[in-house]
Design brief:
The complex is a heterodimer. By secondary structure, chain A is mainly alpha-helical. Helix content of chain A is 56%, strand content 0%. Chain A has one domain: Ammonium transporter fold. The longest helix of chain A has 23 residues. The radius of gyration of chain A is 21 Å and the shape is globular. By secondary structure, chain B is mainly alpha-helical. Chain B has a domain of 142 residues. Classes of the chains: A mainly alpha, B mainly alpha.
Chain lengths: 337, 214
């Protein structure tokens, strides 16, 4: 409650409030992402640290240039940068990271009216731009987990000069991520390392368990609507279980599908953004279900190894329609006069 | 300026020339003829060819229609316009095919499709079918130049960022990482959006600068 100098203060309702202003929501989200971020630095070393730091700094800079000055302190730019950094491959040239972060905030957020305005998550806009503009870098900039010397040196490709192709080739580990290995028909990672996260992948997407933990913290804090991740993960589980039952050779098992790729990061931290997800309860279930179905379809039946990013974008395009379909009826509607 | 839709008989042709190039720019202001604009603006050369061809068709049809405007029956005027436009489009298509086969292949179906370019039809309907030849021709040149301004800027930008070259010549450093998306249709859409934003800002600041008394 606000401190008051008067014994009895007279003011209008509401008298009790949940103290859920924007900076507080952002703070909780950042706290929820801390375990994953720390683990990412442990797993990929300096590469992860540099990627996340550059993404956050570039987002803050873009926010300072494009946004109102008052919004700089609300933490939304920091969260955008953190999420973007966590969603990118670790050895991506840092200028691309900064560029993507700038696109995320300047184009994805402020061209669409600033915080709460965009129909698509700014982080996804930034990432999808990088994917479309620099597909070869995005497909190759992976790093083997727990590599020797990761704490002291950056991958050579990270330090490419702005707008130039890196001099050194990408490390090019075979079967770059567990999902691309599966796609290529190679043996997948053991389930345990998949869930713990000691595998290759984007900076902060590897550890399904830590992401789950962060997501549950957000649910506990009531920052996010639990129905969205529940529906999304449930629908991925359902559809991949059905496919696996049909053809175990071709389709991965349910737990593999749930623990791999950017699914956990997307389900708990991106799909739940209040600006892009439906407002009604039934809508939240539908939205999660649709995204989950898209994830499975893109992963299993397209040329892409990972489909979470596109599934989330398509899902948020559905949001206005879902909101319209599931609009609650006023009590009097349909009653004969 | 005359009221919108009401174009006076004595309107100054030179004014039309200026309007088409800048304030009523067909691409950046009226957003007409978007199909070729987005489809063939992937390189500067394609964009230049396309805009030259469109300007030629527009100018020739405007002159012909303006000449015969007295004898076109009102009820079938659109058919007559399209007939004249199609004649010049066929001429252009054959000429490009004869003299620049590679360009013809690069532009594909979009050369014949000039015939349905709504920018051309709108100029014929608004100007050429109601105005004397001189005004109609100047209007066509102005609109053609405006079309070229928009299309060539768009094409050069997309080529520069998507391939590192400008009209085929390497201008970016050797190791320049091309932005693949600029060569894809998506790149056309957001480069166009960026151009319209840039144009509007530039126009606004030019106006403000002009309004300040010297």
């Amino acid at each position: 409650m606000m401190p008051s100098s008067h014994l009895l203060s007279l003011r209008g309702a509401p008298h009790l409030h949940a103290d859920s202003a924007v900076p507080r929501l952002m703070l909780h989200s950042v706290i929820a992402l801390l375990p994953v971020s720390v683990f990412a630095v442990f797993l990929f070393g300096l590469a992860a640290l540099a990627t996340v730091a550059v993404a956050i700094l570039a987002c803050l800079l873009a926010e300072r240039v494009c946004g109102p000055r008052s919004a700089l302190g609300d933490g939304s730019a920091i969260l955008t940068g953190l999420l973007l950094g966590l969603s990118l491959p670790p050895a991506l040239p840092l200028w691309m990271v900064a560029f993507g972060a700038f696109v995320a905030v300047a184009v994805g957020k402020h061209l669409f009216g600033g915080l709460g305005g965009p129909a698509f998550h700014p982080v996804l806009v930034g990432r999808v731009f990088l994917q479309a503009a620099f597909p070869s870098a995005m497909a190759q900039a992976w790093v083997a987990p727990l590599a020797a010397g990761r704490a002291t040196e950056l991958p050579a490709t990270s330090l490419a000069l702005p707008f130039l192709t890196p001099d050194a080739p990408y490390d090019g580990i075979s079967g770059a991520t567990p999902l691309s290995a599966l796609k290529a028909g190679e043996a997948g990672e053991p389930l345990l390392s998949l869930w713990l996260g000691t595998v290759s992948g984007s900076v902060g997407e590897t550890s399904a368990l830590l992401l789950l933990l962060g997501g549950l913290y957000l649910v506990y804090r009531r920052v996010i609507d639990w129905r969205i991740p529940a529906a999304l993960l449930g629908s991925v589980a359902l559809f991949s279980a059905v496919l696996h039952a049909i053809d175990p050779e071709r389709f991965p098992a349910m737990m593999t599908a749930l623990g791999s790729g950017a699914l956990m990061l997307g389900a708990w931290f991106l799909a739940t953004d209040p600006g892009i997800s439906p407002t009604t309860r039934r809508g939240a279930w539908l939205y999660g279900l649709a995204i989950g179905l898209l994830v499975v379809v893109i992963r299993q039946f397209s040329g892409q190894a990972e489909g979470v990013m596109y599934a989330l974008l398509l899902g948020s395009a559905l949001t206005p329609h879902i909101d319209r379909w599931t609009r609650p009826k006023p009590l009097s509607e349909g009653v004969e006069e | 300026m005359a009221d919108a839709g009401m174009i006076s008989e004595r309107e100054d042709g030179v004014e039309r020339l200026r309007l088409g190039f800048w304030r009523e720019n067909p691409i950046l202001v009226q957003a007409l003829g978007m199909c070729p604009v987005l489809a063939v603006s992937n390189t500067g050369v394609n964009a230049l060819t396309m805009s030259l061809a469109t300007t030629f068709v527009l100018l020739s049809s405007a002159i012909v229609i303006s000449t015969i405007r007295g004898i076109i029956p009102r009820q079938v005027r659109l058919a007559c316009f399209v007939l004249v436009i199609a004649t010049f489009v066929t001429l252009t298509d054959m000429a490009v095919e004869a003299f620049a086969l590679e360009l013809h292949q690069a532009l594909g179906a979009f050369l014949p499709l000039i015939v349905v370019n709504c920018m051309i039809l709108s100029r014929i309907e608004i100007m050429a079918s109601r105005q004397p030849i001189s005004v109609a021709a100047l209007d066509a040149i102005g609109m053609g130049a405006g079309f070229m301004l928009g299309l060539v800027t768009l094409g050069s930008l997309r080529e520069l960022l998507g391939r590192g070259t400008l009209f085929g010549a390497q201008v970016m450093p050797d190791r320049f990482e091309p932005w693949q998306v600029m060569q894809l249709p998506g790149g056309g859409f957001f480069t166009l959006a960026a151009l319209v934003i840039g144009f509007t800002l530039l126009d606004r600041s030019l106006k403000r600068w002009r309004e300040v008394p010297a």
